Amino acid sequence: xxxxxxxxxxxxxxxxxxxxxxxxxxxxxxxxxxxxxxxxxxxxxxxxxxxxxxxxxxxxxxxxxxxxxxxxxxxxxxxxxxxxxxxxxxxxxxxxxxxxxxxxxxxxxxxxxxxxxxxxxxxxxxxxxxxxxxxxxxxxxxxxxxxxxxxxxxxxxxxxxxxxxxxxxxxxxxxxxxxxxxxxxxxxxxxxxxx
Length: 195
Known about the structure:
- The protein is built from 5 helices and 9 strands.
- The chain is of the alpha+beta class.
- Strands 1, 2, 3, 4, 5, 6 and 9 form a 7-stranded antiparallel β-sheet that branches. Strands 7-8 form a two-stranded antiparallel sheet.
C-alpha cells in the first residue's frame, strides 16, 4: 500500500511546463450568485465560444475538450491557462491557496472514460501541498474551498506534457500529449505538518 501511495504522489508531482499564477490570494471569496442551469442551446453556444482557430497543439487540445464538453453537455468554465473545470459542490469557507496542505480523493481518467488512477479504488485519499502537484491541480484547487467536489479537464500542457508519465520498466501510465479528466473532492484543509 505504501509503494502504491508513493507512486501516486510521484505521479501527481509537478511535471507540467506551464507556470501557474502564484500570486498570493487573500482567502476572501466574493459571494457568487447561484448558478442557473443553461438550456442545451445556451450551453452549446457558451462552450463553442471557447473553440480556437489557432494552429498548434494547445489550440487543438482545447478544441478536443470543447467538443467533448458539448457531446457530454458539461457546463464547464475555463481559466486563462486553458484548464477546463466544473465545480459540482462548492464547499465551505475561503478558497484554498498556494502551499495549503490538503486531503483529497480523486479519480483520474482519459477522455474515453478509462480510469488510470483512483484514490477511491485504493480506499485511501492523498495528502499534499498545493504547489507540489501537476499544474492543473495546483491551479484548479485554488478555485475550490474545503468540501468542494469538482471536475478538471486538463490539456496535456497542464498535466504530463510531451513526456507523458512512465512507470516501472518503461511502461506508460499516461501517454505523451494526453488530455486528462480528474473528478475530485477536497476532503479537508489540514494543518501544515511542518509547522
